[in-house]
Amino acid sequence: MFSLQRFFSKEDQFLDLLEASAQECRSSVESLHKILQPEAKLTLEEFAASRRKGKQITNEIAELLCRTAITGLEREDIEALANSLYKIPKTVEKFAERFILFAPRLSDLKWKQHLAILETATGIVLTMVQELRAKSHLEKTKTQNDLLQKAEGEADELMLASFGELCNQTQDPVKIVIVKDLYELLEKAVDRCRDTGNVISNIVLKNS
0.85 cut: is pTM over it? Predict the structure, then answer.
């Protein structure tokens, strides 16, 4: 079993912040689920609040690094994970911004499968961050990261299939452009989760 005990001089503080950032990834998807419901209140309030909180957490990690002379994990690894986590809700918010702008033209679209993959991906990310505290086996981290790779592949396939179906159903070029952008943003959000999983896997591998 690999241990991070000797790698974190301020282990609890860093892990608390990283877990809080991973939790914001989950929260952003929950907010997305709400606005995609029929008759939902189309507002960016929850997304903006989540982004501000995520940015605050990232800044706190940077400040803690500045105040800490020696860190157990390499400083660039902590920074890389913090920045990678922040990009996930930021991408989700970009989708929400565009969806709200064009919502009246998108009432016939279904997002359930896209959301399911994104919920799975953010859930795995949160688990992987929590496993840093739990001192997980390297093999367990690899298994979780493999699941993220699978989710990213499924998201890519779903994006292409959904876009192909849309092109067969409508001749509206404006709608096609709008929806293509939305599908790509959802797929990009899952990509961000995969990237975060890779960062965590590299950290665990280095310190195993």
Answer: yes
